[in-house]
Amino acid sequence: MSPTYLSVDEFQRLFTEFEHTAFRLEVRDRYNVDDEIEEVRRFHAGEPDNPTSGKYWMDNIRKVAEAGMLFERVRVVSLPLTDYSRFGLWSCQDNIAAGEDIRYLTRDAAQGVDLPSHDYWLFDSRKLVRMHFDEDDRPLQHEVITDPETIVQHNYWRDVAWHYAVQRDDFAKEHEPSLQRP
Length: 182
Known about the structure:
Number of helices: 7
Number of strands: 8
CATH superfamily: Endonuclease Chain A
Low-confidence stretches: none
Largest sheet: 8 strands, mixed
Shape: globular
Strand content: 15-25%
Number of domains: 1
Order of helices and strands: EHEHHEHEHEEEHEH
Structural class: alpha+beta
Distance between the termini: 52 Å
Strand order of the largest sheet: 1-7-6-5-2-3-4-8
CATH class: Alpha Beta
């Protein structure tokens, strides 16, 4: 059976059409996403962030959270943090304020509990989308996985990651206290 890949529109619809939970495991030290290039530059230049950046995403998180659904994410990061991971640790405060629960796990800890080395989204514990990237960390394809055993394995990895990960603020206090907003 050949892989099934989602179009950009199909992938985006998943974030508004799930019923209960959307979970993301992020394992890369960098994401080269066009929508973030300017915000990453501003962060590293010490410039204020753009208050309208990511408005669609934040509005959707708020809407979902108000409806009682969960957006959850575990970020696996290397220590010391990469420049991109520092940006992510700073910028995710907006996601958290909107209603997303973002937690952090060091790469060493993730390897110690045998988490996978690929990114994925898991919607309602039954729809699995594995994310593929090129050598420059740009997103390539979003592959729908339908094999029941593989979906169960990714649910297990979600539960393990969630168990060992720490909340964003606790992680920042220990590893990057300068990235706390006043």
